[in-house]
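Collaborator request log, item 7. Partner lab (contact: R.S.) asked for a structural prediction of DUF2187 domain-containing protein to inform their binding assays.
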Amino acid sequence: MKKADVELGAVVNAKSEEELKKQFQGTVEKIYENSALLAITSFDDVDAAAVSDLNYKLVVSFKNMKPARAAKKAKALSTNNVTIEKVAPTIKADDKDKDKKEKKAPAKKSK
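Returned to partner:
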């Protein structure tokens, strides 16, 4: 690719000659004179440790980039799925006994 073809936020396929073994996909975060900073969004499992060490960012030369056609799903960044559900309140055994005693005992009248 040429510098003129690269835009901020563009998704590209890229390869690193030194850092990663396989091709990866990234989003352009910053453009330099002959390269761009990519946020790595998709990569091969063999590069998982290296990508983590790089904090999911890598500077890549324009000559090692090409526009991404369809998103590859080699490795998703987020593997955590959080679900929230409501839980009914529970009454402790001690609280149940207190409630029963209060209901059985007649209320005292004050003079």
